[in-house]
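Hi everyone,

Forwarding the result from last night's run.
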Amino acid sequence: MTKSVSFVIPGEPQGKGRPRFSTQRGRVITRTPDETVLYENLVKTEFRQQCPGVRFPDDAMLDVRVYAFYAIPSSVSKKKRKAMLEKKIRPTKKPDFDNIGKVICDSLNGIAYRDDAQVVDGMVRKFYAEHPRVVVTINEI
């Protein structure tokens, strides 16, 4: 039987931030941006709360679907707002779709699955909505 789970991350979608590099005593130090660390922890927390005890087998092939819903800017007209809610106008702003998928998949390493290398199929879609959030569905193939 194939396993499937879904969970929601509340708030504005975020992407994986670029690592920061610095030199200390002749050594290069790599640091993940604080915003990325906080968001990865939020993803982990929401997964654990909404999908308790779920972990895919170490040899499972996985399909990850990510739906990123951005807040509608308050400055848009009623007509444009309606088009956004009807998915006729979709976000073309940052974060990029690949960075959204990366932060979600990286966050779930060792929690939902052994490693995100198990993800053999995936999709990230961006929309506008009244309530910003990210909806993630993971299916075992």
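The mean pLDDT is 94.

Cheers,
N.
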